[in-house]
Specification:
six-stranded mixed β-sheet; about 270 residues; 5 helices; alpha/beta; binds zinc ion
Length: about 270
C-alpha cells in the first residue's frame, strides 16, 4: 500500500492543487488536519466550500482520509467544546473522517478528531478501544497533533504534543501515527519528521509555503517512509530501528520513480 501524508495546508490552494495532481499515484491520501486557516482573509465558510470541492476531486482519484485540526473548528458541541462539524463523517461521504475507522486489506485506519475538551477526548478513547477490537493486522492512526515528548512535536524551545495521544500509543501500540500541527518540528534542532515510540512509527510532515507541501510517502510493501521538503529529503526503513541522524534521501527509489508524476524537489 502506497500512502501520501500531508497536513497543515492552511488553505494554500497551490498545495491543494499539487495534492490533486499527484493523488492517483497513491492508494491512500491522508490530509491530517488544518485544512483551513483561521488567520486567512477569506471567510471561514467560503474556505469550507472550496476545501470540500478539493475533497470531492481527491476522492474521485483515490481513497481520501482526513481529520480535523485546530484551525478547522466551526461550532461548539453540547459541552461548549469546539469541533469541526463541517468535516464530520456524515458530511464527507466516501471520505474517512473524524471518529471513523476503515479496514483496507490487512490495514485498519482510524481517524481521530481534534479534541478541545473532555467530551471529545473521551470519544477518542472509546473510538480507539472499539477499533482495537477490530484490529486485524497493521493499524494506522490519523491524529492532527503529534504525541508529547517526541521530536515530532518539538517546537524549538518546548514540546507542543498531545499527552493523551502518547498514552494511547503506549497502550495500543499502533504501527503508524500520521500527524501534523507542529509546523517547525522537522526543521528545528532536536526536532524531526519521524519518531518511534516503542514499535510505533510517528510522522509529522511539517509545513512550508507554496507547492509542493512538505510530505511523507509511506510504502508498506517496500517497507519505507520518505520525507520531502525544501530543506532536504530523508528516509527510514520501517523494519529497521530508527537511527539518528536520519539518513538523507539523495535519489528517488525505483518504485517511486515509476509512479511519481510531478517532479519532486531536489531529486532526479
Ligand atoms: Zn497547522
Ligand atoms: Zn494545528
Amino acid at each position: 500500500m502506497r500512502l501520501l501524508l500531508v497536513a497543515d495546508l492552511h488553505y494554500s490552494l497551490p498545495q491543494f492543487d499539487w495534492v490533486v495532481d499527484i493523488a492517483d499515484s497513491f492508494d491512500v491520501v491522508v490530509m491530517a488536519g488544518d485544512h483551513l486557516d483561521i488567520a486567512s482573509l477569506v471567510d471561514g465558510r467560503a474556505q469550507v466550500v472550496v476545501v470540500r470541492k478539493y475533497f470531492n476531486r481527491l476522492r474521485a482519484k483515490t481513497r481520501l482520509m482526513i481529520c480535523s485540526g485546530n484551525h478547522d473548528l466551526d461550532v461548539k458541541n453540547e459541552s461548549g467544546e469546539r469541533i469541526a462539524k463541517w468535516l464530520g463523517a456524515t458530511r464527507q461521504e466516501g471520505v474517512l473522517s473524524d471518529g471513523e475507522s476503515l479496514a483496507i486489506d490487512d490495514t485498519l485506519f482510524t481517524a481521530c478528531p481534534w479534541w478541545d475538551g473532555p467530551l471529545v477526548r473521551a470519544r477518542i478513547a472509546a473510538q480507539l478501544a472499539e477499533a482495537a477490537a477490530r484490529r486485524i493486522g497493521r493499524w494506522i492512526w490519523i491524529h492532527h497533533a503529534p504525541p508529547a515528548k517526541s521530536p515530532t512535536s518539538w517546537g524549538g524551545d518546548r514540546f507542543f504534543g498531545d499527552n493523551e495521544l502518547r498514552e494511547w500509543i503506549e497502550q495500543y501500540r499502533p504501527d503508524i501515527v500520521l500527524s501534523g500541527h507542529v509546523h517547525q518540528s522537522p526543521f528545528v534542532k532536536d526536532g524531526s519528521w519521524v519518531d518511534r515510540i516503542g514499535s510505533t512509527w510517528v510522522f509529522n510532515a511539517g509545513q512550508q509555503f507554496g507547492a509542493p507541501p512538505t510530505h511523507v510517502i509511506v510504502d508498506t510493501g517496500q517497507g519505507e517512509a520518505l520525507w520531502f521538503s525544501s530543506a532536504g529529503n530523508q528516509f527510514v526503513r520501517l523494519d529497521d530501528p530508527l537511527e539518528r541522524p536520519v539518513p538523507k534521501l539523495t535519489t528517488l527509489p525505483d518504485w517511486l520513480k515509476a509512479v511519481d508524476r510531478p517532479p519532486l524537489q531536489g531529486l532526479a
